[in-house]
Amino acid sequence: MNGKLNDILKQLLERCAVSMDASVCGAAACEVPSGFFSDAGKILKAAGFRLAAEWASDETLFGRGFGVYAAYIEGRDHIVIKSLLPPDDPAFPTLTRHFPAAYRMERQIASLMGLKPDGHPDPRPWIRHEDWPEGVFPLRKSFDGTKPLGRVEGTYRWVSAEGEGVFEIPVGPVHAGIIEPGHFRFQAVGEDIINLEEKLGYVHKGIEKRFEALGWEEAARLAARVSGDSTVAHAIAFCMAVEAASGCVPPPRAGHLRAIMLERERITNHLGDIGAICNDIAFTFLHCQFATLRERVLRTNRKVFGHRLMMDGIALGGVAADLSDDAFVAIIDDLHVLSIEFERLVRIYEDNPSVEDRIYGAGVLEPDAAKALGVVGFTARASGQRLDARIENPFPPYDKFPPTVPALSSGDVHARAWVRVEEVRESSRLIRELIREMPEGSVRAGWSGPLSGLSGFSVVEGWRGEIIYWVQCAPGGGINRCMVRDPSTMNWVALEQAVKGNIVPDFPLCNKSFNQSYSGHDL
Amino acid sequence: MENVYSALMQALQLTIVVAGAPLLTGWVRTLKCWMQGRRTAGLLQPYRDLARLFSKDIVLAENASWIFRFAPYVVFGATLMAGAVIPLISFDLPLGATADIIALVALFATARFFLALAAMDTGTAFGGMGSSREMTVASLAEPAMLMSIFTVSLASQSTSLSQMAHVITSTPLVLRPSLAFALLAFILIAVAETGRVPVDNPATHLELTMIHEAMILEYSGRHLALIEWAGMMKLLLFSSIGIACFFPWGISGHGDPLMLPPAFVILAAKLALIGIFIVLVETGLAKMRLFRVPEFLGSAFLLATLGMLSFFILE
Question: What are B246-251's contacts with CB under 8 Å, separation 24+?
């Protein structure tokens, strides 16, 4: 534990009556009385920490009420603050005063766990739809997830705008294209957007609840299905959290293989996204070319890993299967062709003035706003925030092979596309290096379930940004609570800010440049 | 005898417009696929699409009025009427005398007016949005279109398309700056009027970016088929107006049936070339921001004005 973290902890000790909590593995953790939950956040904010996640856990099985948790990150320091709440009328002081990022996470806690954030400015539910019956809190242990939920009539109170010429455009949740469902409500004057309000939760599947009914191996498979395009990153994050709690260290070769898969997933998705951005401005030529490239990577994945998206390639304690030398040759050959083609396409992208006209200055997310909202991933890096969990919380081999993280400050569609271009290049370099320095040995460590009451915390940089898992072991040996925080949880709200002042027909382009996950957000 | 021949010509011409329009669209889509390295759905896919739509039931919004049900027929009818007066392979068009170029623009305007009304009829946000955008484009494109065509009319002393084309083919070939300007203006307008990239994207699924497509989102079944078909005809007709005004050579003269087969081949060749031109533009350009469209059409108007001025100054 370094000096700075010690200072912070000392401050917390003096002002918030904390006690260290040894049950959380993978991050420093302290317990504060619930009255000081918000004050601790204030101290951490002053020290430069950002709020990375906030969640609650029903700890009835441990013979106590509820736990409310907040994870803060600054550079390489990760702190989890925990408060215990009584089982009847549980409430905690809101963090929204210090961290706007807590806004939706606390609404979600109130909606799904039934803990009241005192002083929260917005009492409306989040994720929970208006047609759910009163008093249903699915994340509580008393809720039976196997029975269907009744439906009642209800209404959602939208933010409204009034004035001459102001009108509303409701879009979705079902769209004209085959994309995930989400509702967007615009208030516009002519074509100018004056406000956008998102409503998500249409793909809420109860994943967090489902985790609690599964064994460890099955749970790892479920984590790989939280958001299909980030299957590797989610699986690694889940496994790392469990491994941290059980004290298991995967062998070095497994680390390398995990990193190769993670970087390949990054390349695949970035290729698809850059093409999709071009498609949204009707520059279909590049869309098709990038799709072809992406398909090439996917087919190599199928050949080498047995699955196009590399689903279930990650296993607790390591990876599911070793790769042969032939497989490494195939990956290197693939990268070689990819790099040449990619650079050719990037030149076309850069040189076309009609493309340039659309992407520069569209959907600007100012660096200040990005920082205040706690935005993560390439979205943050396009808005001047040099955040990357591969640097901040490196799992081996990233400690020995640190990536160069690109950061741009303009925060527009171009910046978000360009960060991805740079990341494709960087990931290709990393994969080559990881294969060159591939250690020998086994790919899976022996593994046993963590002890009751312990919890594991992990942060992994998926292609969208940092994915956080917190897995708490139940008294019987199963999972008591598995918290999933996809980067989309942080970034969706930033889209609302980025489109203000843009025109309505530019929204799809801005949205595509963020490309956040509905499934990972709604859980 | 002459009347019978003319009537036959008219029928033949309408057949070409109605039956050939999906083929031109299919050609453009095929070329586009080739340019992007994709496999094509074949030249005949638009016919299959129309057949599929005609065989489907119509889903009507509960609050749709007669305007909504009526509009597809008006749009198709007006476009068909326009197809009757533009010389494709022969100048022998009895109906050609009934409507000159001004009436032609008015026919397209009628179709657009009813489509915009129908789009607002169901009261959805997208319909209103599409109508408002379409009208913005139209209010800028129509004057520019008239201006551009008038330049050609001045040169040929007539506002009847058949007459205009006839005069141009029968006078010796000279390069006229006025016509060059008018042609440039016409190309820009035709891109906007037919809803092609870079003004509109006919292939998009993004509701918020649509112009023309936003208006017809609520249509289904044979209504949608008629509107789609009219859209394909419009592409053919705007190509034909361009051919008749600027490259009319090869259109067969009065009472000259032997010239018909070559005229038909020449028309097909010209349309094929136009298809290639469209695809080259669409492959090389991204769609422009909506607020650039007025500038785009403003420059079309400017070019047309320059054409007209240069006619008075130079010719």
Answer: B246/B152, B246/B179, B246/B182, B246/B183, B246/B186, B248/B87, B248/B164, B248/B165, B248/B166, B248/B168, B248/B169, B249/B169, B251/B87, B251/B88, B251/B89, B251/B90, B251/B91, B251/B165, B251/B169
